[in-house]
């Protein structure tokens, strides 16, 4: 070990070998040298101590100290200094913006700053080093000035002028200028000759949300838009693309690695480019010294081993003269397009590296940089499509964000910005709003640009009737791309014929690579398919519009189609062109090695395509099939005249294809497959079949009318395609089987309330329901599973979903679901989860017993528990459960407001325990229901004491179907007159009461302190005399009662006179009175009817 290293103070004895070397932390990143004055740390008594900001974060990373020691001993006066631990007091001497030491003093404005601030804000100012008591900094300054205005540059080992701008500022300025030149213009799909759009002018901000995990979706990416655009705005935590590395208010850890996911064309690369341009223009994120964009599409070209430094110098030649740049700067590495990567990225087995100058494969360099193994102060930003986001282990990711495309306002703003003529722009907006599927797809910026480019041309020519399907749109896009820069719009057929060979070559490239899920092509790939972009007609025409060159590195070009959907369209164009022009069924030849003899029908081609698409696990052929089916329609054949040698009437084949699709819909397929099949029907424009589903759907919505599985698929399709979120979806009205449930489950994501009642939910159903609950785009807030037979395994699946950070369910109702105390363990884990949003849990009529309550009570005390309402009605509980609940009620973390324990044998002793808790200031319970709990008048003693407590929050009390008697009511009435009593609602159905209790209640109601608003005395023998006593109280101005229940109280017409007086009283506040089941007689009803017409009546 270097002798100098032995002098470093690490805060503990240094062993011969380091016991802990950080190789995966984001703290293994270089920080600038910071200087400490003696008075900043009382524990430091020696002159010339130098504190390193990095060292306080990672004390044991000895490899990083080596870098600091090398720098410290580059200047002679610093050779006597030594590393010490930074203290909390010294945080005050750090620049809050750049986290660097305040070592410079500016005479002009009397402020302190770090060296980076001097470069950015104080150019030309008179600068002094800070003074210290021991004069060490003066000595350092003299050592520096001895070099006659030059200082050693630790990055190159050379001497450079020590001006206010410095070597780093010079490099940064040159680097920023290069980045601005590279990214300041937008790529235009159908650009006008000689015109380019600035990124700042054409870029409309897309919605970026913060997430935690990347969910797997097995359908085509475009199908995900149908749920994304309905995601509740309140649950999406939006974040500016320029703020993705800034911790949120409650976040304490630094954001080192950000993974941004999003479907193809949604705006990931544009967000990256705008981020870079904003940084290069000095507008945002100036704390990064350098930003390096390294697209995977270009990294794939590097086959030989190379060092990290060498890799950067290949992409950015301006840094070639700075060999040690990586150890002195705060650097952001941006890796764009993880889905285009051809690297294995094996984080477990790849060689570990820390030397930025050591050569290795690009794969190894990437994994080590992401893990934080290199001796670099690095931040990482990775973009990816959802399907490949899982290639980066979550432990290496600090934040996950998702680009969700345009919002409605942004979409319209983009259209108006893109389209110069206001009238045409408004027509475009109106047109896409009529076609719901097209409107949804326009949330993708690239597709929106295609739509605007096409509609801008077609609407000017009044050809909007040719734009009724997705295939219509892309066929018109092809025509616009071919004719946009030519004044030959009347010669479309001729242009298509002259470009037929080129279109077929591009289509073959698209088709054969679509099956391989390959979207990136190189020169050798183009040569293999006979595509020569050096041909002047190709390079200046079609290929420049739909087949773009993405970069040039090592003299090799990289290409891709404008968007994945464009590749899928060209693949379909090639297959349909081969069929129509040469009578070849490429699908059978390609997929089943089967050669056709004789005439091939369009139906056989469509059938083969549909079969292949239904077998695809990830839905990568879904849009290909839609395009292929749409090309056989009359409208698309007419547009493609010239490319097609002839047009034919395929109406019979289209009708047969529609029948085959209907047959597939009846089969057991995934929800994504059903959805794609309905999209296929739309492309065929088979209105009769669509109308058939529409009619059955309307009939099925009638209560009691159930649907077949295929009709359930139709309901799902239309629901997902509609604009509105469903407030309350009752699945039990439609589903008749497990298959129906499976097909209707996707509707859960766009419903606020889902009712799945009176089913036998299997494990498969619960698994799919759990997936819906965990979807980050789910709108579901309330789930009702009443009267389902569920086992422990099914409950376990649901509870795992409820613990997901994406699950936002607030209400769960599971009455009559066959739950046992064993299920309470899983439910308790949900309540204790930091991600749980559950506010209401309804568990009536389940065999939970006291042990289940014990488990739930422990969860109610947890600091993460947010539950406010708990119902355990008829759950086999005894007075013993009150012990556990009493403990929970007294917890400082207890948030429960409503508790229902009705139909359990609590007895008076159980209520005694609960009442004791109600008097504690920590108890927040506002509603208690204990009907049918075997209670007597004795329990009223405890409840009365609780009601009179100043700490009681009880507002609602249900004591129905207990033998309280008049003596019990007397005790409660006394409590109602106490000024501390806050009770608003009191139920005492069938409590063995007589007219005598009305005397006590009447006295309470007339008290100025009584807050009672609702009183229910039904099923008690109050008789007419009791009503007379209550009526006198109801006419008292101090009485606040608004609702009175007296059903089946043995009342006669004699009481009606007293009640009529109440109704006509100006002082009465009564709004509701319930008198069912009493023998009031015709005369009594007449009296009440007359009273109801009174001017003062409020009932």
Short description:
This protein has 1099 residues and is of the alpha/beta class.
The low-confidence parts are 1-93, 122-165, 188-195, 212-216, 590-596
Q: Any idea what the shape is?
A: elongated
Span between N and C termini?
93 Å
Name the helicity range.
Answer: 40-55%
The biggest sheet amounts to:
13 strands, parallel
Detailed description of the structure:
By secondary structure, this protein is an alpha/beta fold. It has 43 helices and 30 strands. Helix 11 links the parallel strand 12 (330-335) and strand 13 (377-384). The chain is elongated and about 105 Å long.
Comma- or semicolon-separated keywords:
single chain, 1099 residues, alpha/beta, Rossmann fold, 13-stranded parallel β-sheet, 30 strands, 40% helix, disordered N terminus
Write the layout of secondary structure elements.
Blueprint: H1 3-6, E1 33-35, E2 50-52, H2 62-72, E3 83-84, E4 104-106, E5 111-113, H3 115-120, E6 127-129, H4 136-145, E7 150-152, E8 159-161, H5 166-183, H6 199-202, E9 208-211, H7 221-228, E10 257-261, H8 268-280, E11 290-293, H9 296-299, H10 308-315, E12 330-335, H11 362-371, E13 377-384, E14 399-403, H12 408-418, H13 422-434, H14 436-441, H15 445-460, H16 470-483, H17 492-498, H18 500-514, E15 521-522, H19 523-528, H20 536-539, H21 542-546, E16 547-553, E17 556-561, H22 564-582, H23 586-592, H24 602-615, H25 622-631, H26 634-639, H27 651-665, H28 671-684, H29 687-700, H30 709-721, E18 726-730, H31 738-744, E19 751-755, H32 763-774, E20 782-784, H33 792-802, E21 811-813, H34 821-831, E22 840-842, H35 849-860, E23 869-871, H36 881-889, E24 898-900, H37 907-918, E25 927-929, H38 939-947, E26 956-958, H39 965-976, E27 985-987, H40 995-1005, E28 1014-1016, H41 1023-1034, E29 1043-1045, H42 1054-1063, E30 1072-1074, H43 1081-1092
Parallel strand pairs: 2-3, 10-13, 10-14, 11-12, 12-13, 18-19, 19-20, 20-21, 21-22, 22-23, 23-24, 24-25, 25-26, 26-27, 27-28, 28-29, 29-30
Antiparallel strand pairs: 1-2, 4-5, 4-6, 7-8, 9-14, 15-17, 16-17
């Amino acid at each position: 070990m270097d002798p100098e290293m032995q002098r470093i103070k690490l805060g503990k004895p240094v062993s011969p070998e380091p016991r802990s070397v950080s190789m995966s932390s984001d703290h293994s990143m270089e920080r600038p040298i910071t200087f400490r004055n003696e008075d900043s740390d009382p524990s430091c008594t020696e002159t010339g101590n130098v504190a390193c900001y990095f060292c306080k974060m990672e004390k044991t990373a000895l490899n990083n100290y080596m870098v600091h020691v090398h720098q410290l001993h580059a200047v002679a006066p610093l050779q006597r200094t030594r590393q010490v631990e930074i203290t909390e007091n010294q945080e005050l001497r750090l620049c809050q913006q750049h986290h660097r030491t305040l070592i410079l003093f500016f005479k002009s404005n009397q402020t302190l700053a770090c060296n980076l601030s001097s470069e950015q804000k104080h150019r030309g100012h008179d600068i002094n080093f800070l003074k210290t008591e021991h004069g060490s900094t003066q000595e350092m300054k003299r050592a520096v000035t001895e070099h006659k205005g030059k200082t050693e540059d630790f990055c190159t080992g050379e001497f450079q002028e020590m001006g206010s701008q410095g070597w780093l500022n010079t490099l940064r300025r040159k680097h920023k200028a290069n980045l601005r030149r590279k990214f300041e213009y937008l790529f235009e799909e159908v650009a006008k000759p000689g015109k380019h759009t600035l990124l700042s002018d054409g870029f409309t901000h897309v919605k970026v949300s913060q997430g935690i995990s990347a969910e797997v979706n097995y359908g085509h990416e475009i199908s995900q838009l149908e749920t994304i655009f309905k995601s509740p705005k309140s649950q999406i935590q939006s974040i500016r693309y320029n703020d993705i590395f800034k911790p949120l208010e409650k976040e304490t850890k630094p954001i080192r690695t950000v993974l941004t996911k999003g479907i193809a064309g949604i705006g990931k690369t544009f967000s990256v480019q705008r981020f870079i341009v904003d940084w290069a223009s000095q507008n945002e994120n100036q704390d990064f010294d350098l930003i390096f964009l390294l697209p995977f599409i270009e990294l794939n070209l590097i086959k030989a081993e190379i060092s990290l430094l060498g890799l950067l110098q290949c992409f950015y030649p301006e840094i070639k003269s700075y060999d040690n740049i990586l150890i002195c700067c705060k650097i952001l590495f941006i890796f764009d397009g993880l889905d285009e990567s051809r690297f294995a990225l094996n984080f477990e087995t790849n060689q570990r590296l820390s030397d930025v100058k050591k050569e290795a494969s690009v794969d190894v360099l990437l994994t080590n940089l992401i893990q934080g193994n290199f001796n670099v102060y690095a931040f990482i930003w990775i973009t990816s499509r959802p399907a490949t986001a899982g290639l980066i282990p979550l432990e290496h990711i600090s934040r996950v964000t998702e680009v969700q495309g345009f919002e409605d306002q942004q979409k319209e703003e983009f259209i108006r910005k893109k389209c110069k003529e206001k009238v045409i722009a408004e027509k475009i907006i109106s047109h896409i709003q009529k076609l719901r599927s097209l409107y949804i797809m326009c949330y993708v910026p690239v597709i929106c640009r295609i739509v605007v480019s096409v509609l801008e041309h077609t609407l000017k020519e009044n050809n909007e009737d040719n734009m009724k399907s997705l295939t219509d749109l892309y066929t018109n896009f092809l025509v616009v791309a071919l004719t946009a820069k030519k004044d030959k719009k009347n010669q479309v057929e001729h242009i298509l014929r002259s470009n037929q060979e080129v279109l077929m070559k591009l289509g073959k490239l698209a088709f054969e690579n679509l099956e391989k899920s390959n979207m990136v092509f190189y020169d050798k790939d183009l040569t293999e398919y006979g595509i020569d972009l050096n041909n002047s007609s190709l390079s200046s025409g079609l290929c420049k519009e739909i087949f773009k060159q993405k970069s040039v590195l090592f003299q090799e070009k990289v290409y891709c189609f404008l968007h994945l959907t464009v590749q899928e369209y060209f693949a379909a164009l090639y297959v349909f062109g081969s069929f129509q022009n040469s009578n070849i069924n490429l699908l059978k030849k390609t997929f089943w090695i089967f050669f056709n003899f004789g005439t091939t029908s369009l139906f056989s081609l469509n059938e083969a395509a549909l079969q292949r698409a239904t077998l695809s696990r990830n839905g990568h052929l879904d849009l290909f099939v839609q395009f292929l089916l749409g090309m056989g329609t009359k409208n698309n054949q007419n547009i493609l005249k010239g490319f097609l040698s002839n047009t034919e009437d395929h109406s019979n084949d289209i009708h047969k294809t529609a029948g085959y699709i209907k047959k597939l819909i009846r089969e057991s397929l995934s929800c994504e497959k059903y959805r794609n099949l309905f999209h296929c029907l739309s492309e065929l424009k088979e209105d009769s079949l669509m109308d058939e589903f529409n009619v059955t759907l309307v009939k099925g919505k009638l209560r009691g009318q159930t649907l077949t599985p295929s009709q359930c698929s139709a309901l799902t399709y239309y629901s997902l395609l509609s604009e509105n979120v469903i407030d309350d979806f009752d699945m039990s009205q439609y589903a008749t089987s497990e298959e129906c449930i499976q097909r209707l489950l996707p509707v859960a994501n766009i419903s606020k309330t889902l009712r799945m009642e009176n089913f036998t939910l299997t494990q498969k159903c619960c698994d799919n329901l759990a997936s819906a609950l965990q979807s980050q785009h789910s709108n579901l807030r309330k789930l009702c599973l009443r009267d389902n037979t569920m086992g422990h395994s099914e409950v376990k699946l649901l509870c795992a979903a409820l613990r997901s950070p994406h699950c936002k369910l607030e209400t769960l109702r599971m009455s009559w679901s066959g739950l046992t105390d064993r299920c309470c363990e899983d439910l308790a884990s949900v309540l204790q989860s930091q991600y749980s949003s559950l506010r209401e849990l309804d568990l009536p009529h389940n065999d939970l017993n006291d042990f289940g309550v014990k488990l739930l009570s422990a969860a109610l005390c947890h600091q993460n528990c947010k539950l406010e309402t708990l119902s355990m009605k008829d759950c086999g509980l005894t007075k013993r459960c009150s012990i556990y609940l009493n403990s929970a009620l007294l917890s400082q973390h207890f948030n429960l407001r409503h508790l229902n324990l009705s139909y359990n044998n609590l007895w008076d002793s159980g209520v005694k325990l609960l009442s004791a808790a109600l008097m504690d200031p920590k108890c927040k319970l506002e509603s208690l229901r204990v009907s049918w709990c075997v209670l007597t008048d004795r329990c009223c003693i405890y409840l009365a004491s609780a009601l009179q407590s100043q700490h009681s929050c009880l507002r609602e009390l249900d004591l129905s179907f207990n033998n309280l008697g008049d003596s019990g009511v007397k005790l409660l009435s006394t409590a109602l007159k106490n000024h501390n009593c806050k009770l608003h609602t009191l139920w005492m159905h069938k409590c063995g009461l007589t007219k005598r209790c009305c005397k006590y209640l009447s006295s309470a109601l007339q008290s100025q302190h009584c807050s009672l608003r609702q009183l229910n005395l039904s099923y008690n023998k109050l008789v007419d005399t009791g009503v007379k006593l209550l009526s006198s109280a109801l006419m008292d101005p101090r009485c606040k009662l608004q609702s009175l229940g007296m059903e089946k109280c043995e009342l006669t017409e004699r009481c009606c006179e007293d009640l009529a007086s109440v109704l006509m009283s100006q002082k009465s506040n009564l709004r509701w009175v319930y008198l069912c089941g009493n023998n009031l007689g015709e005369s009594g009803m007449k009296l009440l009817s007359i009273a109801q017409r009174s001017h003062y009546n409020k009932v």
